[in-house]
Amino acid sequence: MERLLVLEDGSVYHGTAFGSDDFKIGELVFNTSMTGYQEILTDNSYCGQIVMMTYPLIGNYGINRDDNESMNPCVFGFVIRDYCEKPSNFRSLSTLDEYLKLKNIPGIYGVDTRAITKKIRTAGTLKAIFANPDEDIDAIVKKLKESDFMHNQVSLVSTNRIFPMPNRGKKVVLMDFGAKLGIVRELSKRGCDLIIVPYNTPASEIMAFHPDGVMLSNGPGDPQDVQVAIDTIRQLIPQTVVFGICLGHQLISLACGAKTYKLKFGHRGANHPVVNLKNGLVEITSQNHGFAVDIDSLKNTRLEMTHQALNDKSCEGVAHKDYPCFSVQYHPEASAGPEDSRYLFDQFIELMEKENQKNA
Question: Which residue segments constitute the domains of the chain, with CATH numbers given?
Answer without folding.
Answer: 2-146 (3.50.30.20), 154-359 (3.40.50.880)
